[in-house]
Write a structure and sequence with these properties.
131 residues; alpha+beta; Pnp Oxidase, Chain A; seven-stranded antiparallel β-sheet; 2 helices; globular
Amino acid sequence: MIIPESHRDLLLDSTKAFAFLATTMKDGTPQVTPVWFDVEDDLIRVNTARGRVKDVNMIARPRASLAIMDPQNPYRYLQIRGKVVSNEEKGARAHIDILAKKYLGQDSYTGSTDETRVIYRIKPRHTFTMG
């Protein structure tokens, strides 16, 4: 993974850092959403529902950036720019439960159950760090 060792702790489940996910709208303007995330192998995983703006954007324009701020020090962060390499519905409901455990300490996600969940995998291509 191209993440510098000095900032890999921000990717750990125990850190509970939020990522600010930037995607691109059809007109080229940026769209940013705070998201839960985790890491699988060398890929950043985010989970959303079909039809949301970030879902539509990542399907149409499969590039994304994430800014992950250290919860203990807002002047220390990791920026990742990468390519969306997959999106799949299989396993997405279980994945959102894993993220709910990480971020909320709950065994399951209590949001809408009638949504179709999807996991996006983002391969980091470039990084920048501060702090």
